[in-house]
């Protein structure tokens, strides 16, 4: 539903601003002009709809296979905009309480971009997850509750320099791992997106210090020619057992 309503919102925004621009240029005085704008904006909205589920399928595939979220869970979604992972997390944890016979979950989603609210989730737009302010905000929202699943689909803006981009996404993964370790419930799960690079084996080894099992996952919906894959850590051991 959200995907569709998001498209309509996107469509109306584009249409509204296109009309506004044209009016400013005093070109919009005939019906055919309005009709052309309508078609252009519909195409743009369809394109955004085509892009959005691509992300969603990756998480659906991971959760369907590994059951990383369940009703009542506390989930943090890092790099959440425009919100399809958040929507899945909210549904799978029953964050809106729609299923009254099941425990109600909590989903907190963060993105450096502003994004639309997602039913049942707490959305924090305009926040850089890697900064202490964002992580403190999440801590204060959770008020002592431990986290059952941390998701990160965060991706830095590509610089065009592959090594730098890989370094940046690996830095994101470490930021998410450190945060997860400080707030995770026993047996909880972690999913981080990474672009393959020489640092990944070290990242996997570091995750293994805290999680019983760490797995590389390349969802079918992830383009085969991209270096993207996900690391799934399952069974958080707790910091005492690891001695960290
Ligand atoms: C692939 S998109 C996420 C798509 C999202 N999972 C979904 O299903 O809608 C990656 C997101 O990471 C966000 N991002 C990049 N750097 C970030 C940061 N430092 N803090 C929070 N979000 C960040 C981007 O703004 C972008 O929205």
UniProtKB/TrEMBL annotation:
Keywords: Methyltransferase, rRNA processing, S-adenosyl-L-methionine, Transferase
Alphabetical list of Pfam families matching this protein: FtsJ
UniProt entry tagged with the keyword DNA damage: no
One cellular-component annotation, GO: mitochondrion
One function term, GO molecular function aspect: rRNA (uridine-2'-O-)-methyltransferase activity
Gene3D superfamilies for the chain: Vaccinia Virus protein VP39
Alphabetical list of InterPro entries matching this protein: RNA_methyltr_RlmE, RNA_MeTrfase_FtsJ_dom, rRNA-MeTfrase_E, SAM-dependent_MTases_sf
Ribosomal RNA methyltransferase FtsJ domain: residues covered: 54-236
Family: Belongs to the class I-like SAM-binding methyltransferase superfamily. RNA methyltransferase RlmE family.
Protein name as catalogued: rRNA methyltransferase 2, mitochondrial
């Amino acid at each position: 539903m959200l995907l569709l309503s998001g498209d309509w919102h996107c469509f109306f925004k584009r249409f509204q601003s296109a009309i506004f621009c044209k009016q400013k240029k005093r070109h919009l005085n005939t019906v055919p002009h309005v009709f052309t704008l309508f078609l252009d904006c519909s195409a743009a909205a369809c394109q955004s709809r085509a892009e959005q589920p691509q992300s969603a399928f990756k998480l659906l595939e991971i959760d369907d296979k590994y059951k990383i979220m369940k009703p009542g869970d506390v989930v943090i979604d890092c790099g959440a905009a425009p919100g399809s992972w958040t929507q899945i997390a909210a549904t799978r944890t029953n964050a809106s309480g729609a299923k009254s016979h099941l425990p109600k979950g909590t989903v907190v989603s963060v993105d450096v971009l502003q994004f639309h609210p997602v039913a049942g989730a707490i959305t924090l737009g305009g926040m850089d997850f890697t900064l202490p302010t964002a992580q403190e905000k999440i801590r204060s929202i959770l008020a002592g509750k431990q986290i059952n699943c941390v998701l990160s689909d965060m991706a830095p803006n590509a610089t065009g320099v592959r090594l730098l981009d890989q370094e940046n996404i690996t830095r994101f993964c470490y930021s998410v791992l450190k945060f997860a370790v400080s707030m995770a419930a026993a047996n909880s799960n972690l999913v981080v997106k990474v672009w393959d690079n020489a640092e990944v084996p070290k990242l996997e080894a570091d995750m293994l210090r805290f999680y019983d099992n760490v797995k590389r996952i390349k969802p079918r919906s992830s383009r085969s020619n991209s270096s993207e894959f996900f690391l799934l850590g399952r069974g958080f051991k707790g910091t005492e057992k690891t001695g960290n």
